[in-house]
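Design request, tokens follow.
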């Protein structure tokens, strides 16, 4: 009897020890930081997210599969990401590619939860059960409306072809590729162990969106610039789009536009043409007609609004630079370098990272001058003549004209003349408005007289164009009206 009691006591003691050990291990597991995969929120949002915890969100206790489950509202996740516009498509994507699409204007009873069985999962009580995607890897927000300034545009020299946002790109046909990244090896006891590394990417082929023609120019938000045949791809990167070259190695990041069937000429050519003529003993005058795009040029030639320019050989179509504003265009023209290289890609920059044509003029011992408006737009070296509206007629182009004639009489080797009135009038009255045409006619007369008095080469181009806006005219968008400008070279003299 005593022996039986002893065994019973040992069994009870062992059982209690196992229970205590189990509780301790469970507590350790609960308190440990187990791996939780990230839930990425991307697309047409200002704040892409990588969610690894529910912290920072209001949580609710909901019933799911007859169990109480801790969850967060899907609309709170969307709101925290900061959608660019209202009315979006929401794509919920699982790790196996299974995707559900719902609208963001009806997200009542839509939740996101994390469970040990299904990872991040969607619990939509008002939608069909097929929308309850399990093991979610990402949520993509795609605008239902046009959002031209939020995404990237595809244009050619004659028209605007396509505006597409990062979220809308996700809706296009996607090509999955594994990119080779490299090999690694180690030596263990004389035996080599080697592995090969790949990364998985989702691309959209550019040629599926537009005919790339004879080649493309790709431009990015912060001055990035690249040329290619057009055989490359677009890739969604958070809330931006990258252009990936066909070799799948090089890329242009955060692109704002692609110019397909791109013209051979660029307003940057002025830098090299001036160098060529000066090197060969020719004097050169560059006339910059601010805000005068090729679209305006064609319309003005049709209406004979600029009779002198119409009498000349037809101007070539040339590409401008993004962002199409005066700082950016002027910097590219006087340096021959893209915004990425010269350091000026918006109105905010003034300092150049590379030498200018004025530096070259000084280097070879020539006499040059910049005839400008009332302010110095860029931090350039050399002789500069600023002009104010002395006669209070609403423009200083007449003063610029007189200063340019003085420079001609002083027998300068290089004169750069920057007229402003077409751009000024375009902002107030539109690119094809009556007062803008009036300003263009006056500039045309100035150019005719200046060219007749100049003995040398003359280059006429623009920093950017202008498109019609709600109020009048504007520029700064990746639109063909802003990005395509005239370019011509003529001989001076009567």
């Amino acid at each position: 009897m005593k022996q039986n009691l002893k065994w019973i006591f040992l069994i009870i003691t062992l059982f209690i020890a196992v229970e205590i050990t189990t509780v301790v291990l469970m507590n350790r597991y609960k308190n440990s930081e187990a791996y939780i995969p990230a839930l990425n929120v991307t697309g047409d949002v200002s704040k892409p997210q990588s969610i690894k915890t529910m912290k920072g969100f209001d949580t609710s206790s909901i019933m799911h599969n007859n169990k109480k489950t801790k969850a967060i509202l899907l609309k709170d996740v969307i709101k925290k990401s900061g959608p660019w516009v209202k009315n979006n498509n929401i794509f919920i994507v699982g790790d196996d590619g299974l995707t559900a699409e719902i609208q963001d204007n009806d997200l009542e009873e839509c939740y996101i939860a994390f469970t040990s069985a299904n990872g991040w999962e969607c619990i939509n009580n008002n939608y069909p059960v097929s929308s309850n995607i399990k093991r979610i890897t990402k949520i993509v927000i795609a605008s239902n409306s046009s959002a031209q300034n939020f995404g990237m545009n595809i244009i050619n020299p004659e028209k605007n072809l396509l505006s597409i946002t990062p979220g809308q790109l996700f809706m296009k046909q996607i090509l999955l590729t594994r990119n080779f990244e490299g090999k690694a090896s180690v030596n263990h006891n004389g035996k080599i162990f080697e592995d090969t590394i790949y990364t998985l990417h989702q691309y959209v082929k550019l040629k599926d969106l537009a005919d790339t023609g004879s080649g493309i120019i790709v431009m990015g938000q912060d001055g990035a610039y690249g040329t290619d045949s057009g055989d490359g791809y677009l890739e969604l990167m958070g809330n931006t789009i990258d252009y990936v070259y066909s070799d799948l190695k090089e890329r242009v990041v955060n692109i704002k536009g692609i110019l397909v069937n791109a013209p051979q000429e660029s307003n940057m050519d002025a830098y090299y043409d001036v160098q060529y003529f000066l090197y060969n003993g020719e004097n050169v005058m560059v006339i910059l007609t601010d805000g005068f795009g090729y679209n305006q040029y064609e319309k003005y030639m049709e209406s004979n609004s600029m009779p002198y320019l119409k009498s000349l050989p037809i101007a070539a179509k040339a590409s401008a630079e993004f962002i199409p504003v005066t700082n950016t265009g002027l910097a590219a023209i006087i340096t021959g370098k893209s915004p990425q290289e010269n350091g000026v890609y918006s109105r905010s920059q003034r300092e150049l990272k590379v030498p200018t044509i004025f530096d070259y003029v000084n280097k070879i011992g020539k006499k040059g001058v910049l005839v400008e408006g009332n302010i110095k737009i860029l931090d350039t070296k050399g002789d500069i003549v600023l002009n104010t509206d002395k006669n209070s007629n609403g423009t200083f182009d007449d003063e610029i004209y007189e200063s340019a004639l003085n420079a001609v009489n002083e027998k300068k080797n290089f004169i750069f003349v920057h007229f402003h009135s077409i751009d000024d009038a375009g902002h107030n009255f539109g690119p094809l408005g009556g007062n803008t045409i009036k300003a263009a006619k006056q500039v045309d007369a100035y150019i005719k007289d200046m060219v007749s008095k100049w003995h040398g080469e003359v280059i006429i181009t623009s920093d950017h164009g202008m498109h019609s806006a709600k109020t009048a005219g504007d520029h700064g968008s990746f639109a063909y009206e802003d990005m395509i400008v005239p370019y011509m070279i003529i001989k001076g003299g009567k």
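Comment from the thread starter after seeing the answer: thanks! Residues 319 and 484 are 5 Å apart (CA to CA).
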